[in-house]
Amino acid sequence: TPSVSLRQVGKTYPDGSQALIDVSLELRKGDFLFITGPSGAGKSTLLKLLYGQEKFDSGSLTVGGFNLANLRGNQLALLRRRIGIIFQDYKLIPRRTVAENVAFVLWAQGYNRKEISRRLPPTLKMVGLQHKADCFPSQLSGGEQQRVSIARAVVGMPPLLLADEPTGNLDADNSRQVIRILKKLNSIGITVIVTTHDEHLVRTSNFPVVQLRDGRLYQVRS
Ligand code: ADP
Ligand code: ADP
């Protein structure tokens, strides 16, 4: 069974913008997919549908066994626990240290102190930031902040990781570093979806690529 499945999904915002038209897409567990396309093409909207941030109007959508058309009760919360998300602007808590930013996720999910202090070091090490655990976000470079946000996204070991323009604010070197970490996470079995308008980044890798243009999805490379 696919881990993510969209069948002819359509999304129109209340103001009439058609963000997605007839989008069909399937990913299996452990897949890595780039979604490219110009600004306004619908990339963020697609990710928002996957984690239940926006509703869709037509078609069907399932993520890891959850039917997004009718989530009820605490199903949305359960779905979101199984999805890690990374944004272009990191969204770290400014007055919390690196370690606290990452630990917060586990704390919010009810992990105890012992479990949190067991999980934190390997996660920070995975993104190369164990030595920055006590720094505040403002003391870090953009690349380092994005790596903190990756640590935060995966510390709860979600099977699906969504990255919305994760390299949008980064230079070429930091972008490559972020993509390398995403590939490493994929290699341990996490399904990864990355949106980007950076065609160069996509060309220098050989993962599957789809493109969104004006809300329609096109296969680029499988
Ligand atoms: P991308 O991520 O590729 O830049 P988006 O998914 O953000 O594209 O946007 C797709 C289209 O939907 C654009 O025309 C955008 O203006 C519109 N859109 C996105 N979010 C909203 C919103 N909250 N309300 C109305 N229109 C929106
Ligand atoms: P990005 O290109 O980084 O995805 P956007 O500018 O598309 O960022 O979106 C930033 C925020 O503004 C999002 O929450 C999106 O839903 C909202 N938004 C985008 N386009 C519109 C729009 N046309 N009308 C209202 N809200 C929008």
Key phrases:
222 residues; alpha/beta; four-stranded antiparallel beta sheet; 10 strands; binds adenosine-5'-diphosphate; transmembrane transporter activity; cell cycle; cell membrane; ABC_transporter-like_CS
Topology summary:
Blueprint: E1 4-12, E2 18-27, E3 32-36, H1 43-50, E4 58-63, E5 66-67, H2 75-81, E6 83-87, H3 98-108, H4 113-126, H5 142-154, E7 160-164, H6 172-187, E8 191-195, H7 199-203, E9 209-213, E10 216-221
Parallel strand pairs: 3-8, 3-9, 6-7, 7-8
Antiparallel strand pairs: 1-2, 1-4, 4-5, 9-10
The structure holds adenosine-5'-diphosphate (2 copies).
InterPro entries: AAA+_ATPase, ABC_transporter-like_ATP-bd, ABC_transporter-like_CS, ABC_transpr_LolD-like, Cell_div_FtsE, P-loop_NTPase
GO molecular function: ATP binding; ATP hydrolysis activity; transmembrane transporter activity
Protein name: Cell division ATP-binding protein FtsE
